[in-house]
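Researcher: I'd like a structural prediction for the single chain below. Treat it as a standalone chain; there are no partners to consider.
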Amino acid sequence: MANNAPATAQAPTFGARLSEAVRGAFGTYALVVIAFLVIQGMIATGSITSALQGQLVPICVYICAAVSLNLVVGISGELSLGHAGFMSVGAFTGVVMASLLGDVIPNDALRLLVSVATGGCFGALAGFVVGVPVMRLSGDYLAIVTLAFGEIIKNIVNNLYVGRDAAGLHVSLTSVADLGMDHGVVIINGPQGAVGIDKLSTFVAGFILVLVTLFVVLNLVRSRSGRAIMAVRDNRIAAESVGINVTKYRLMAFVVAAALAGMAGTLYAMNFSSVVAGRFDYNTSILILVYVVLGGIGNVRGSIVAAAILTILPEFLRFMADYRMLIYAVVLICVMVLPNIGAVQRFMDAVKRKVPWLSDKEALEDPDMVSTGGDSRG
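Model: Treating it as a single chain, here is the predicted structure.
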């Protein structure tokens, strides 16, 4: 008599479990930690130039911005061109908060923490205010509205004057004279931007912010809400038919990304003695989008690598003087064009099979594929 009992599934081997961990979130965290330790070792031994060392905080900032934008573009499937606007909101609110806490919190690390948290809160608030009407749009309409938001923020900051004195905070949209301060300190000086900033940002703080950004994004993607966000991205009508609130989950991704961008903006502003609104213009939003596209839409690990490489590439090409930006543009074009060539696609597929940790997209969107090694959807 035939035995129809199902065969007992074999426990996965240590190698299989390790491969699953490397392909998933653990591999992404490990990549960041290893890079941090290597760079710290280079700093300790003097193997890194001062110019490149000055790029470490901006690299962390752009990694956070790229990963957070990937949450909107890759995971949620919406095109946002105003990400730098949320960075601007976080940058200037964080600077104001750090200035107000200068006498209250003498510890620089704690003051930076409070400022970054404040920048993230105001970034989330701006994301909510913009997202409530915008998330009912899609496609080109969404891109245009987010682009307009970024330009509106830039123009508001260009006409914003903020100062503080013994009486508290003073705000004006006309001039410093209209602040009405008595021997106060100007924090934001209109077109000159934020001035007299205490440079609180450090590479360690940037590393911690990268880990926080990864923790928020990776856990959101792997959660029930993340599944709903990806369901809306894949088929909005089908998602609505099973009772998923489309606007709610699109807005959730948008607000979380805006909060993380606000935190990154604060860290960026606190790395300089002064910062202007022009640092967060349309070109910055496009630059962050380039990091996302080149790293792979929906690929968090790719966004990290792309942001790091493309941030330091102009510095490495500085010896070529006037031609460095031309070569930078050629590199971007090649990276965009080559993956669409059949031979290159086959080569990259072979590399991904040999080195599975290069991408975490499949592990994030379909964890079952990691353990089974194939498509779990049949």
